Amino acid sequence: MDMDLPDIGSHCEAHLCGDRDFLPIKCPGCQKVFCRHHSSLDAHSCPSLAFKSITPGDETTSPRRDRCFVTTCQKPTLESMIVDTTEPEKRVIALCANCAQAFCAIHRHPTDHACPKIPVPTPASEKNIEARRLLEKNFPSTSSKTPSSAIPKLKPKKLPTDPKKLARLRAVELMKMRHHAIPADPRDKNVSMAPSERLHLKVQVKIQNGSGSSGATDGQEKSFWLRKTVGAGRALDMIADQLAIKISDSNPAHFEKLVPGSEDDPIRLRNDELLAKQVEDGETIYLVVGSNAVDS
Fold first, then answer.
1. Which stretches of sequence are listed as region Disordered (predicted)?
2. Confidence of residue 36 (pLDDT cuts 50, 70, 90)
């Protein structure tokens, strides 16, 4: 029986190493591949180090690289090594998917930099809230109906007020959305379109005043992508259809978004303007359904 390892990854090209790494890193200097222990220029004595000094009359220097977010590490981040790509819309964001910080090759995994935001199991209380919503919607009780006001509302997540942290958070969210988002318009399902022409959004449903004309549940989330030429009103209709939400005069709906530092005072989006002019790619917006969502 052939017991050889599958042809995945590559052997480290550092002298006296040769370990197989399933996530090898290509050196930008010598173009060879290395394991995480020998990926830095110093670790494998990269020949490109000999050309880093500035010769008289030569003002050209290598670009400044950001250091790893781990305070004791002086190695450059993976993000700083690929940020200069000529096609930024096609590159993969090299940030931690949990804390949105930039790390070197050695500390790139959440467990290697003691990530403070490693996902934890959903608390039982939050699961119970969602279960109660589903039970009330699908199996209403005529004898002991629990009022919808007794079910706690899930509070919206607060956005970081630091512009750099907010940009990193949205970059990570956008990376996830590009993998999971579905077209809001079913006719675009088999359409090939460049990422720069798409608007990716995470839509969260907010049910007001116990609206019963909605097929969605309060707090439900789904990621969509739309053409950047679509108006907010048209986008509202398409996404509502996807979520089985019936919009009418008695059950109106609208989009709104949060502002960092003012989460309790959301901004309502205009239906008569392009959605791409009112939100950023990778942003989270709210589809508000109910008697308080008076149509504009």
1. 139-161
2. confident
Q: How far apart are CA 55 and CA 50, in angstroms?
A: 12
Q: Which residue has the tokens 């599958």?
A: 6
The encoded tokens of residue 64 equal 């400044």
Structural domains of the chain, ranges and CATH numbers in brackets: 156-289 (3.10.20.90)
- Greater confidence (61 vs 67) lies with 67
Give percent helix, percent strand, percent coil of the chain, each to the nearest 5: 20, 15, 60
Q: 3-state DSSP call for residue 76?
A: strand
Question: What are the DSSP E strand ranges found in 133-252?
Answer: 182-183, 198-207, 221-227
Tokens linked to 217: 């549940």
| Band (25; pLDDT cuts 50, 70, 90) | confident
Please check the confidence at residue 260 and state whether its pLDDT lies above 80: no
Residue 8: other Cβ atoms inside 10 A: 9
Residue whose token pair is 């002086």? 74
For residue 65, how far is the Cα from the chain centroid?
24
Cα-atom radius of gyration of the chain, to the nearest Å?
A: 25
35-41: long-range pairs with CB below 8 Å, 24+? 36/105, 36/106, 36/108, 37/12, 37/106, 38/12, 38/14, 39/104, 39/105, 39/106, 40/75, 40/76, 40/104, 40/105
Query: Do strands 198-207 and 283-289 pair parallel, antiparallel, or not at all (unpaired)?
Result: parallel
Among 140, 184, 154, 177, residue whose Cα is nearest residue 263: 154
Both tokens of 179, joined, read 């993998």
As beta bridge partners, residue 287 has: 205, 255
In angstroms, the CA 78 to CA 93 distance is 9
DSSP-assigned beta bridge partners for residue 20: 11
pTM for this predicted structure: 0.48
